[in-house]
Amino acid sequence: MLITPADVIEYSVFDAVKERPVSLLEQDILEAEIEIENIVGHNFTEIAPLPDKARLALLKMAQFYALINSDESIVKGYTSEKIGDYSYTLANGQTIRKPDVKSLLKEFIKTESTDRSGVQMRLRVL
Q1: Measured between alpha carbons, how far is 119 from 63 in angstroms, rounded to an integer?
Q2: Helix-helix angle 22-40:52-70, to 10 degrees
Q3: Of the four, 3, 37, 79, 86, which is 20 to 30 A from 60 by CA?
Q4: Strands 86-91 and 78-83
Q5: How far apart are alpha carbons 39 and 47 in whole angstroms?
Q6: CA 9 to the chain's CA centroid
Q7: Highest mean pLDDT among 29-33, 40-44, 70-74
């Protein structure tokens, strides 16, 4: 893993993340790493130490996955209130959104090579 559960706990301000078991945080980090790899087109295992921007993107994404995996009501946008013996639940239409980390990762995104020394094929209509 590129970051640890302790890193996520230290970064987050959400109690749901801070109180999440380490084993589950490890799974959240794995999801975040896969998401980041899909964005940049490679993993960061060859780059040591991990650049600060990539680390911050991983922390944000791991926190996101920890939040949505810890509480189903966050995903659906429900808010629950309890006043004495009376409780109610509302759907306020807002849900937690995946953080946009592309600006943090733009310098690490792998681009396709423009080298055209490979095989070239021409097709024509018969």
Answers
A1: 45
A2: 130
A3: 79
A4: antiparallel
A5: 16
A6: 15
A7: 29-33
For residue 82, report the phi and psi dihedrals to the nearest 5 degrees: -135, 125
Place of tokens 């943090």: 104
The tokens for 28 are: 């959240």
Q: Residue 44: CB partners within 8 Å, gap ≥ 6?
A: 2, 36, 50, 51, 54, 108
Strand boundaries in 46-124, DSSP class E? 78-83, 86-91
Residue 122 C-alpha from the chain's centroid: 42
Phi, psi (5° rounding) for residue 88?
A: -145, 160
d(CA 84, CA 100): 39
* Residue 37 structure tokens: 């790899």
pLDDT in tens, 56-102: 999 999 999 998 898 665 555 556 655 555 555 555 555 667 889 99
CA distance 31 to 34: 5
Which residue(s) pair with 22 in the sheet? none
Q: Is 111 exposed, middle or buried (0-12, 13-18, 19+ CB in 10 A)?
A: exposed
What was the pLDDT predicted at 115?
59
